[in-house]
Design brief:
With 153 residues, the chain is mainly β. It has 1 helix and 8 strands. The protein is globular and about 45 Å long. Pfam families: ApeP-like.
Length: 153
């Protein structure tokens, strides 16, 4: 992940149904139909922080939310109101080949990139497979292949 100018004005609510305290993405830095780059600053008050470290489940949830933003964008329009309209429900349907090399600590920022490897779309749901990797600075924290299911409510 090289340093470059990113569009930090992308509204997360147009891509993810999650809200605090379960929102594990601070910013979508770059997104297309098949690729996304997200950032997340580890805060001491995060529900998945223990002993000053983001636990495995928190890192996996962050990686899954990064992945779901690619598919979630097809369910939202530009005039979407996140306070009054809950459009989709999604869940991890499988995690393959997840490797965690290191857990990030409070105060560290994670940059996570995901690429869509396969997707099936129906009228009201999507099933997809993504490759994802999370880094802190230039150090690889984790990699995984994640399957997601998203359904329009």
């Amino acid at each position: 992940m090289s340093e470059q100018a990113y569009n930090t004005s992308i509204d997360i609510a147009h891509f993810l149904p999650h809200r605090r305290p379960m929102l594990m993405v601070d910013a979508i830095l770059d997104i297309s139909a098949e690729h996304v780059l997200c950032s997340f600053l580890i805060d001491a008050g995060n529900i998945f922080v223990q002993d000053n470290t983001l636990q495995e489940v928190g890192l996996m949830e962050h990686m899954a939310q990064t992945c779901s933003s690619i598919v979630g964008q097809r369910f939202y329009s530009k005039d979407y109101d996140p306070e009054s309209d809950k459009r989709i429900i999604g869940f991890i349907s499988g995690v393959k080949q997840m490797t965690i090399f290191k857990l990030p600590e409070v105060g560290q920022e994670i940059l996570t990139v995901s690429s869509l490897t396969s997707k099936f779309d129906a009228d009201d749901y999507s099933i997809c497979t993504m490759q994802v990797e999370a880094k802190q600075e230039n150090e690889l924290l984790a990699t995984a292949e994640i399957n997601l299911f998203l359904k329009k409510q």
